[in-house]
């Protein structure tokens, strides 16, 4: 998931939560037991997650220790597993890494009560996403909605346009041309960060191909020369190939990093009317601009193509367990419950696919709308495709999907060449 990528590399820190108790005696049923948790979160996110851990401590009497490992989480986890000191639970944002851990036997399938909680509280797709070899290994605790387009209301008002939600891709392009004709570049694209371009492609592909094709492409059971890939690139070229729609044109976009693509829309002066990326755009708006979300900044869901149903490309942090003891099993069950998510939801900066969490638990209308769009998509949710592929293909700077789509942004007329390059890179990455 890209939230950890944009956060940058951090040092590994260990934060030990205070031991809480349940009841008046100070002795919960798990008193004296410890759950050791590793996650990516640091800073404010860690503070908010530790309140979730406090709630579990108070409920059970167990002690929870948390280590924030940032982008180094796979390395930290692998080192600990190799050294014979695995954590109890890790929150993993790369499904491929979780599958690797399951294949090696490092993590355990969840217990029946955990699976029952997942079935009760999540759409079936989330059980599927957390399963390997038909066994459930993970609970998606925190997710990202990566199918959102964020707009500057003042930019639309300046050219007498209403920031309506375009129902279709054609309408989105029409609005973009109207903005450009009025002298306002429609979209700021973070082409310097290749992962944003994979998200553009994935959202188009999810809406032009069927769900089965999306799943097969992620596994390389379909080649990247398949007609479904060509159809998606053809649609994407309608935007990438119209230089007046892009702030700075393709060359400017290729020099624009993610955070700057957001501030170019919501900073002063604004350089574009819209930016596409996940719900985490709101964090950049709040921390780096004076724009107020809900007043100066809004969002709409990625539009439909060819009558496609509402769909969401998602990322997420999946809890997997390395130990099979009562405290760990109860902690996993707690993470699958609405109770745990409500603790963080009330603090902000959190989305969950757990349908048992009332949308009123979230602090504002924008967050509630972001969550509702995920819930409404139901089983039309698919995990970030590039995160499902080998890192050499879907997650490496200067190669694979990132580089091929950067070159496509530079020259969107080269659809066939782009497909061939993608297939060549994929074939090497998936080779045994």
TrEMBL record:
Transmembrane segments: none annotated. Coiled coil: none annotated. It comes from the Bacteria. Keywords: Signal, Transport. Residues 1-18 form the signal peptide. Pfam families: SBP_bac_1. InterPro entries: Bact_solute-bd_prot1, SBP. Belongs to the bacterial solute-binding protein 1 family. This is ABC transporter substrate-binding protein. The lineage of its organism: Bacteria, Bacillati, Actinomycetota, Actinomycetes, Pseudonocardiales.
């Amino acid at each position: 998931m890209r939230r950890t990528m944009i956060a940058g590399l951090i040092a590994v820190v260990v934060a030990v939560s205070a031991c809480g108790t349940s009841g008046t005696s100070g002795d919960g049923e798990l008193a004296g037991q410890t759950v050791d948790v590793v996650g990516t979160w640091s800073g404010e996110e860690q503070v908010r997650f530790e309140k979730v851990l406090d709630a579990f401590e108070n409920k059970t009497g167990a002690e929870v220790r948390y280590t924030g490992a940032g982008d180094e989480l796979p390395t930290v986890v692998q080192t600990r597993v190799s050294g014979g000191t695995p954590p109890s639970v890790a929150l993993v944002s790369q499904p491929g890494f979780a599958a690797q851990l399951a294949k090696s036997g490092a993590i355990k399938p969840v217990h029946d009560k955990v699976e029952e909680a997942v079935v009760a509280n999540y759409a079936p797709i989330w059980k599927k996403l957390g399963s390997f070899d038909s066994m459930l290994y993970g609970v998606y605790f925190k997710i990202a909605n990566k199918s959102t387009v964020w707009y500057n209301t003042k930019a639309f008002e300046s050219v007498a346009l209403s920031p309506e939600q375009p129902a279709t891709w054609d309408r989105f392009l029409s609005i973009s041309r109207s903005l450009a004709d009025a002298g306002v570049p429609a979209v700021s694209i973070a082409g310097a960060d290749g992962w944003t371009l994979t998200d553009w492609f994935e959202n188009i592909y999810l809406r032009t191909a069927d769900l089965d094709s999306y799943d097969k492409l992620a596994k390389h059971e379909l080649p990247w020369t398949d007609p479904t890939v060509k159809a998606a690139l053809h649609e994407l070229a309608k935007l990438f190939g119209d230089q007046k729609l892009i702030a700075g044109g393709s060359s400017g976009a290729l020099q624009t990093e993610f955070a700057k693509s957001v501030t170019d829309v919501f900073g002063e002066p604004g350089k574009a009317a819209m930016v596409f990326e996940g719900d985490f755009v709101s964090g950049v708006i709040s921390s780096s601009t004076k724009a107020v979300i809900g007043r100066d900044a809004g969002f709409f869901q990625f539009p439909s193509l060819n009558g496609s149903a509402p769909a969401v490309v998602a990322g997420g942090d999946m809890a997997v367990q390395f130990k099979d003891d009562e405290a760990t099993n109860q902690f996993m069950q707690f993470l699958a419950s609405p109770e745990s998510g409500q603790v963080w939801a009330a603090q902000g900066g959190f989305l969950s696919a757990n349908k048992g969490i009332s949308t009123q638990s979230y602090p504002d209308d924008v967050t509630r709308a972001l969550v509702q769009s995920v819930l409404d998509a139901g089983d039309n949710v698919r995990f970030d495709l590039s995160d499902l592929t080998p890192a050499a293909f879907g997650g490496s700077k200067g190669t694979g999907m990132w580089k091929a789509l950067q070159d496509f942004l530079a020259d969107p007329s080269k659809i066939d060449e782009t497909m061939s390059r993608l297939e060549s890179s994929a074939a090497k990455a998936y080779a045994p």
